[in-house]
Request: fold
Amino acid sequence: TLQFRAAEFADPRKAAALMAKVARAVHHAHRQGIVHRDLKPGNILLDASGDPHVADFGLAKQIESGGSLTVSGEIVGTPSYMAPEQARGAKVDQRCDVWAAGAVAWEAIVGDRLYDTEDEIGALLKIVNEDPPRLRSVRPDLPEELDDALDWALTRELAERCPSADALRRR
Reply:
């Protein structure tokens, strides 16, 4: 299996098709009550056909009956791909994986991380305090629909974020 490398998917159609398959896999985990919490390019493996497989569920957690995970102020995951609530050590649910999928898609399309900083603390501060740039601010050639879908996935306000990986895939 080959590891996903974002630079290989700079073609937005190829990146969108790949991320739709990733979203389907993530949605399947969510339906089983599991949140990955560390979705990133290094945890997306490509098979010989180029199909993605989500790997490394080492930080995954079962969603509690209340619909979210309590992490007691614990920050787990890879900073550049953490949702704002995850970066703050707050309760997380499947929407943290939606955020991460948006960050991975951004990187796949743009070729750079959403918040490319020199250190992990800098990335966390930007994720918590700054709205992500719109995709078309970096790639004005891209369709508005793609920009809108990523904006929905990367909304900092949890209540306004795309509610599921499946909803993101269908958009």
Summary: Residues 65-73 have pLDDT under 50 and may be disordered. The chain has seven helices and five strands.
